[in-house]
Amino acid sequence: MARNVAESTLERCNLASLDQKLALAKRCSHEGAMAGAKAAVVATIATAIPTMASARMVPWARANLNPTAQALIVSTAAGLAYFIVADKTVLAIARRNSFNSASLSNKH
């Protein structure tokens, strides 16, 4: 009987820990997605202005960059910014959380 109580307590602790880790992972991925979206907006603006301006003013660009090419340049920059910043954000948060959990486990 005592063994069953101990096992159920251990299972509850493991489930609580698992729920906590799941919530932390969701928050981490959400923060990464938001940071990536912000970076994508900035990259879109930062690449759209010079791309559109050069397509109107530079003779080579006017001849060779049709609207599809211009959209491809802008969307590529935005996509790269999103994934790079989201990845770096998630890794930074995971690293910070791993150090926090290591310091907590050392205290016990």
Shape: rod-shaped
Structural class by helix and strand composition? mainly alpha
The end-to-end distance, rounded to whole angstroms, is 28 Å
* Main sheet record: none
Radius of gyration: 24 Å
Report the total helices: 3
**Mean pLDDT over all positions:** 86
Proportion of helical residues: over 70%
Pfam families: ENOD93 (PF03386)
Organism: Rehmannia glutinosa (Chinese foxglove)
Protein name: Early nodulin-93-like
Describe this structure in words.
- Pfam families: ENOD93.
- This is Early nodulin-93-like.
- InterPro entries: Enod93.
- The protein has helices spanning 2-57, 59-64, 67-107.
- It has three helices and no strands.
- It is an all-alpha fold.
- The model has no long low-confidence stretch (mean pLDDT 86).
- It is rod-shaped and about 75 Å long.
Summarize the topology:
Layout: H1 2-57, H2 59-64, H3 67-107
Protein name: Early nodulin-93-like
Defining traits:
mainly alpha, 3 helices, 108 residues
Q: Summarize this, please?
A:
This protein has 108 residues and is mainly α.
